Amino acid sequence: MAETAGIRASRPLWWLWLALVYLFLFAPLFVVALLSFNKSPYGTLPFHWAGAYWYHQLFAESDLISSTQLSVELSLAVAAAGTTAGTLAAVALTRYRFRLRGLLVGALPLPIVVPWLVLGIALLLIVTLVGLGRGWPALFLGNLAVVIPYVVIIVSARLRDMDPSLEEASRSLGAGQWTTLCRVTLPLALPGVLGGALMAFVVCFNNFTLQYFLAPYGVETLPLSIYNLIRVGYRPDVNALSTILLAAALILLFFLDRLSAVPRGQRL
Amino acid sequence: MGRSKGLVVAGYLVPAYGVLVLFVFVPLAALLYFSALDNMPGPGIVAHITNGNYTILTEEPLYLRLLGKSLELSLAVTAICIVIGWPAAYALAKVVRRRRNTLLSLVVLPFLTSFLLLIYAMLVLLQPSGLLLGPLSAIGLIGSTSTPLYSETAVIIMLTYEYLPFMILALYASLERIDGSVVEAARSLGASPLRIFRTVLLPLSLPGLEAGLILVFVPAAGSFIEPQILGGPSGLMLGSVINDQINVVDDWPLAASLSFVLIASVLILTAICTGVLRLGTRLATRA
């Protein structure tokens, strides 16, 4: 891209603005990470190094390990099912032309955009009506519905960027639909599929709202545990928990980036 | 398209769209049905059709007032996100050259952590004697106990913090597509920076503005945990009351009618705002 003289002159101003925006986005998280190593239980200064004290406290006092385990199991199941269904849909939406395609693509963002409070309540009402009620089936299906659009969008982006001639070659050499899909399309789309799966896992893992309305009574997934902790107010051990989860998010981001599955406002 | 090919396409689509229809579209449509019942149907409970869950909106002014406030707050948040996010997205798309991908990925980072942690982080940052406000009060800029916490301001700050990344990404997607030579042509023909913004950049970023409006305004209007934790009594939003109908009061049909009214008003307002954005952009181009 040719750089214009105007941009060159105003470059420091643009960078200043960006720096302020990133400061706003990261200062709160940074402060929490810093305070997780501060001795004071009230987050007050001066800063005294506490080492891993609050991290020990976190695991000594709360039942976070079992709720994390529940969250991981739920998210793995949802991500596996969501990736399968979403990848197949992405193949259909990018490799075939048919009526209703526009409508199906247009409907995809709805589960992401609709306030999850409303979706959670709507799901709770309907599973109660059919006699299912709050529980694992409702939790699984509700989260599945929300992660599918993410998978479709990420996998479609990859499928669109792929060279279609390889699939054409496979077909013209006599491979059937299914063979071409399994032996050519999916292996080539693998980074996108993995990215979609990772994204599905993260979205389900963090989806407090749906879990709040659909989890079986008495069962705490990690977001529900966090909710119960932060309702109390300032807690030094929650600082430690936030820092751990932030570090996990950074690692995830690294992998998502490698799979070029970081959402950047892609369209279908 | 042959019949067998049609079957293949249908087979690919059914798992995903079956789930979406059964667990998103049908439940959302069923809200309307539940909102017209006088009781939650169940074993031994017969529900009757009533309009009571809607007439209560006119009898009890609290609900409409909170609806108004939810819409007002989330519109304000959307506007703030546009004002902060547009220059940031422009800088990312057209000014930054090296490290662009790293910077873009970092925008997504807060989204990968639980939004509960973002709420908690904001709660910590805004503590009266915390790391930010403590030093400010020590040098006498603000009172020793003053904090925006437990007010509307705290909710606005929080929702901006939470949704700004979505606005930046939406605007980035449209700004990145703008061909630099178009801007260069305008400049070499003597257009001022303001004029280039009005007549070239703003109209070309309209799709991003529209997408950002939907990605920020719609979910923000349904917030319920942010006001509950940071908003105090004056920062209450309709979402918190809807949540109470489910988890405290146990009046599920009223929760359904309030949810339906919320969604309907959000949709109408989104359509109006999209129109205003388009009109405003056109006027700016001509002026």
Describe this structure in words.
With 268 residues, chain A is an all-alpha fold. Helix content of chain A is 74%, strand content 0%. Chain A is built from 13 helices and no strands. Chain A is globular and about 70 Å long. The two termini of chain A are 25 Å apart. The mean pLDDT of chain A is 88. With 287 residues, chain B is mainly alpha-helical. Chain B has one domain (65-286): MetI-like (MetI-like fold, Orthogonal Bundle). In chain B, helix 3 packs parallel to helix 7, helix 3 packs antiparallel against helix 10 (206-221) and helix 8 (180-188) runs antiparallel to helix 9. The longest helix of chain B has 35 residues, at 61-95. The radius of gyration of chain B is 23 Å and the shape is globular. Chains A and B meet through helix 1, helix 3, helix 5, helix 6 and helix 7 of A and helix 1, helix 3, helix 4, helix 5 and helix 7 of B.
Structural class of chain A: mainly alpha
- Per DSSP, the total helix count of chain B is 13
Helix residue percentage of chain B? over 70%
CATH architecture of chain A: Orthogonal Bundle
Q: Quickly name the level 1 CATH class of chain B.
A: Mainly Alpha
What would you call the shape of chain A?
globular
Mean pLDDT of chain A: 88
Strand content of chain A: under 5%
Structural class of chain B: mainly alpha
H/E element order of chain A: HHHHHHHHHHHHH
CATH architectural group of chain B: Orthogonal Bundle
Molecular shape of chain B = globular
Number of strands of chain B: 0
CATH topology category name of chain B: MetI-like fold
